[in-house]
């Protein structure tokens, strides 16, 4: 599905993402948060909600939230407030979750990305700090449910967007961009299988120009593939309901990857159901400018800032710059190649084109790139100085990928050196013109195709070693 209408309906999507912050310890206690420990070995008295315990704010969690705010151009509230969100569930021993409600720490901001060459911007409402709950274990027990409180008190940043997205593709592109940013700045490990980055997708449909439709909230999407499937299913389901004359009821739904369907979990509760009120155990969170300035000074260059620099310093199109800053490894590789060969746009073309295609085909991460930056730089130089043709360059790349040696050795051993002897080339061109009288006549009668056929003949006769530009020029000269 694309930004176009689906059966005459406009799709509207807003995201709530829980990013688990990569601190050592929990948000309000000193218990560790490492993944995969034996149940209940990482829950201390505070996490167990024993009487008399008090929460203490983890500074590391606050600083990670500041980093996200700086990365997304948000306002960082000088004073924000923790609230109690009250509900009963066995994995929540306190009977409430500590979260931020009326005054969140991070306010506004935006996430921009490219979708099929088109720049999109999704506005953020807020990002607030909160604690995770524990976990109910149903699998290992017959007729009983176990409770694991290791996860209770794990620091989360909930990042909420405006309902700005208009297709499942756009939603997935947003989620990928946000995932890139939190892992780039290092506030979250981004491990989706382990639940470190999980998205709730709010989905509704409407006729163009109508008021917002009633939404379903699809909970806990922890893979980009499921995200797309779940939203596509919801959109079809909601349209079917409306077309059949049924109103959509606001609800929370779960996606089942086995059936590819969503199903209702509960009707949605209102904020009022949670009886939010400021937590008297925690003072307001006060963040001054000096603190923000210090955090900013410790952050690495942001992807969007780096992309702007690539446009400014290397003259790259915005799209290239955005693509090359998908990961730090890719960006660093590009810079190394561009600096070594002095041909930034060609470096970008090779990296975004042939290299990425090969990595994708073999499902390799960029870190596993078998070709060193200086080797690609040399290859680009050999094409630029006319030693080999662009096509021969692809053969050299193939060979290098298979670790057949360095650029010059491969050019030599495969006999790929371009023909730079104009005399020899002229002889071939003369032969081809003589042997293809009908093509020559057609070209003179105005058929461009006939000219390309002649170029092809010359390239073939030279075994691909002629410089195509030279062939073009020479043929034009002889035929005019
Ligand atoms: P709640 O308080 O129930 O969580 P919010 O107003 O905070 O509701 O919105 C939660 C998310 O749902 C936000 O990302 C918002 O953009 C999105 N959203 C709100 N209304 C709609 C709608 N009609 N269709 C799709 N998404 C919506
Ligand atoms: Mg919400």
Reconstruct the topology from this structure.
Elements: E1 10-20, H1 59-71, E2 75-76, E3 79-80, E4 82-86, E5 96-100, E6 106-107, E7 110-115, E8 118-131, E9 135-137, E10 146-148, E11 155-161, H2 168-184, E12 197-206, E13 216-221, H3 224-243, E14 251-256, E15 261-267, E16 277-278, E17 285-286, H4 289-297, H5 303-314, H6 318-324, H7 328-341, H8 344-361, H9 373-384, H10 390-401, H11 407-413, H12 422-435, H13 437-444, H14 448-461, H15 468-479
Parallel strand pairs: 13-14
Antiparallel strand pairs: 1-11, 1-12, 2-6, 3-17, 4-5, 4-16, 6-8, 7-8, 8-11, 9-10, 12-13, 14-15
Helix pairs in contact: 2-3, 5-6, 7-8, 7-9, 9-10, 12-14, 12-15, 13-14, 14-15
Could you explain how this protein is built, in words?
- The structure is a single chain.
- With 480 residues, the protein is α+β, with helices and mostly antiparallel strands.
- The chain folds into 3 domains: 5-291, no CATH class; 301-414, no CATH class; 422-479, Arc Repressor Mutant, subunit A, CATH 1.10.10.410.
- 39% of the residues lie in helices and 19% in strands.
- The chain is built from 15 helices and 17 strands.
- The chain has helices spanning 59-71, 168-184, 224-243, 289-297, 303-314, 318-324, 328-341, 344-361, 373-384, 390-401, 407-413, 422-435, 437-444, 448-461, 468-479; strands spanning 10-20, 75-76, 79-80, 82-86, 96-100, 106-107, 110-115, 118-131, 135-137, 146-148, 155-161, 197-206, 216-221, 251-256, 261-267, 277-278, 285-286.
- The strands form 4 sheets. Strands 1, 2, 6, 7, 8, 11, 12, 13, 14 and 15 form a 10-stranded mixed beta sheet that branches. Strands 5-4-16 form a 3-stranded antiparallel beta sheet, with no helix packed on it. A two-stranded antiparallel ribbon has the order 3-17.
- α5 (303-314) packs across α6 (318-324) and α12 (422-435) packs across α15.
- The longest helix is centred in the middle third of the chain and has 20 residues, at 224-243.
- The protein is elongated and about 95 Å long.
- The two termini are 51 Å apart.
- The model has no long low-confidence stretch (mean pLDDT 93).
- The site of magnesium ion has 2 residues, from loops.
């Amino acid at each position: 599905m694309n930004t176009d209408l689906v059966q005459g309906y406009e799709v509207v999507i807003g995201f709530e993402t829980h990013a688990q912050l990569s601190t050592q310890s929990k948000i309000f206690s000193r218990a560790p948060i490492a993944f995969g420990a034996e149940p209940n070995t990482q829950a201390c008295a505070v996490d167990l909600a024993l009487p008399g315990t008090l929460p203490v704010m983890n500074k590391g969690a606050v600083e990670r939230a500041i980093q996200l705010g700086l990365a997304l151009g948000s306002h960082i509230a000088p004073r924000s407030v923790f609230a109690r969100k009250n509900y009963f569930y066995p994995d929540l021993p306190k009977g409430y979750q500590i979260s931020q409600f009326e005054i969140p720490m991070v306010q506004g901001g935006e996430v921009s990305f490219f979708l099929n060459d088109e720049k999109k911007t999704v506005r953020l409402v807020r990002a607030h700090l909160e604690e995770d709950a524990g976990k109910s274990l149903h699998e290992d027990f017959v007729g009983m449910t176990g409770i694991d409180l290791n996860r209770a008190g794990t620091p989360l940043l909930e990042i909420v967007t405006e309902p700005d997205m208009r297709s499942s593709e756009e939603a997935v592109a947003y989620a990928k961009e946000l995932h890139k940013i939190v892992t780039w700045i290092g506030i979250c490990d981004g491990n989706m299988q382990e639940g470190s980055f999980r998205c709730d997708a709010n989905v509704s449909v409407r006729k163009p120009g109508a008021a917002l439709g009633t939404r379903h909230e699809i909970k806990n999407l922890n893979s980009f593939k499921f995200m797309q499937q779940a939203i596509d299913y919801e959109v079809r389901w909601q349209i079917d309901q409306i077309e059949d004359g049924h109103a959509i009821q606001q609800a929370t739904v779960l996606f089942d990857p086995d059936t590819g369907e969503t199903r209702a979990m509960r009707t949605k509760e209102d904020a009022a159901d949670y009886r939010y009120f400021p937590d008297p155990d925690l003072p307001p969170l006060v963040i001054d400018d000096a603190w923000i300035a210090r955090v900013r000074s410790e952050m690495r260059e942001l992807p969007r800032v780096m992309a702007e620099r690539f446009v400014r310093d290397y003259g790259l199109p915005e799209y290239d710059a955005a693509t090359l800053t998908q990961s730090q490894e890719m960006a660093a590789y590009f810079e190394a190649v561009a600096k070594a060969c002095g041909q930034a746009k060609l470096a970008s073309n090779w990296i975004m084109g042939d290299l990425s295609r090969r990595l994708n085909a073999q499902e390799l991460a960029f870190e596993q790139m078998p070709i060193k930056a200086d080797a690609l730089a040399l290859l680009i130089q050999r094409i630029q100085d006319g030693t080999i043709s662009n096509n021969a360059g692809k053969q050299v790349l193939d060979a290098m990928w298979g670790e057949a040696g360095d650029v010059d050795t491969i050019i030599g051993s495969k006999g790929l050196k371009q023909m730079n002897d104009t005399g020899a080339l002229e002889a071939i061109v003369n032969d081809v013109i003589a042997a293809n009288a009908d093509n020559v006549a057609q070209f003179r009668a105005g058929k461009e195709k006939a000219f390309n056929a002649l170029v092809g003949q010359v390239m073939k006769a030279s075994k691909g070693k002629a410089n195509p530009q030279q062939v073009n020029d020479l043929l034009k000269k002889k035929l005019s």
